[in-house]
Write a structure and sequence with these properties.
This protein is of the alpha/beta class and 240 residues long. 35% of the residues lie in helices and 16% in strands. The chain has 2 domains: 67 residues, Cobalt-precorrin-4 Transmethylase, domain 1; 132 residues, Tetrapyrrole methylase, C-terminal domain (Methyltransferase, Cobalt-precorrin-4 Transmethylase, Domain 2, 2-Layer Sandwich), CATH 3.30.950. The strands form 3 sheets. Strands 4-5-8-6-7 form a 5-stranded mixed sheet, sandwiched between helices. The protein has a 3-stranded mixed sheet with strand order 3-10-9. Helix 6 links the parallel strand 4 and strand 5.
């Protein structure tokens, strides 16, 4: 059971001998309810989501429907963890999520735009690294630019930004730019955007958000091993 686009991504060998039911966009409640009914009929049923089922996936809706129908004790549910798009995208970009980050979807199908805007502003003001899901669609093409301008109130235009499309899928693309140069034409619903915080930098073509290890353990003081080496070199130069 799943959204047709995600079901089509499954290896055909895994689907042999199984009943396949898929629905299109906005059919979430229907397919989750159908999955519950199949389970009640005694069938092992898998509700397929992309990434991780508990992150913008169907796990929550299944549990909500079971609670609404007083069925939690009658249907055994196992939520199987997956690799969320934010983790796949971050790995391809380098290590941009080494410190605190916030994840926000720009889709206003379920959440009013004003609430989304407030969350973006709060996260930007608090200097979180920002992971943006559902940044742009064919009909919803203005929110990303508004979000970019909003973040620019709290961060410089040089802030690193990573755009990953089709993370860990066929047609994967990776692009690192800056907040001031973010090209919206490269972004769609298959894209994940990661906006660095005030400490994020690029190095060797990768994004890195320092956790603070270097500052804590490698301060301006010379590390012991380097100090000993310098001391030996000084003695050799003195003897010479």
């Amino acid at each position: 059971m799943g959204y047709k686009t995600y079901v089509d991504l499954i290896d055909a060998a895994l689907l042999e001998g199984k009943e396949i039911i898929s629905t299109g966009m906005k059919g979430e409640i229907r397919r989750c309810q159908m999955a519950i009914e199949k389970a009640l009929a005694g069938m092992d049923t898998a509700v397929v989501s992309s990434g991780d089922a508990g992150i913008y996936g169907m796990a929550g809706l299944v549990l909500e429907l079971l609670a609404e129908q007083d069925l939690p004790d009658k249907v055994k549910v196992e939520v199987i963890p997956g690799i969320p798009a934010l983790s796949a995208a971050a790995a391809l970009l380098g290590a941009p999520l080494m410190h605190d980050f916030a994840v926000i979807s720009l889709s206003d199908l379920m959440t009013p735009w004003e609430i989304i805007r407030q969350r973006v502003e709060a996260a930007a003001k608090a200097d979180f690294v920002l992971v943006i899901y559902n940044p742009k669609s064919g009909k919803r093409d203005w929110q990303l630019e508004e979000v970019r301008k909003l973040i620019l109130k709290f961060r410089g235009g040089h802030t690193p930004v990573g755009v990953v499309r089709n993370a860990a899928r066929a047609g994967e693309s990776i692009h690192i730019t800056t907040l001031s140069r973010l090209d919206e034409s490269q972004v769609d619903m298959l894209s994940i955007i990661i906006v660095g915080n005030s400490m994020t930098r690029t190095s060797g073509g990768r994004m890195v958000t320092p956790r603070g290890y270097m500052e804590k353990y490698f301060s301006k003081k010379v590390p012991v091993q380097n100090a000993e080496l310098k001391s030996k070199n000084a003695v050799q130069e003195s003897n010479y």
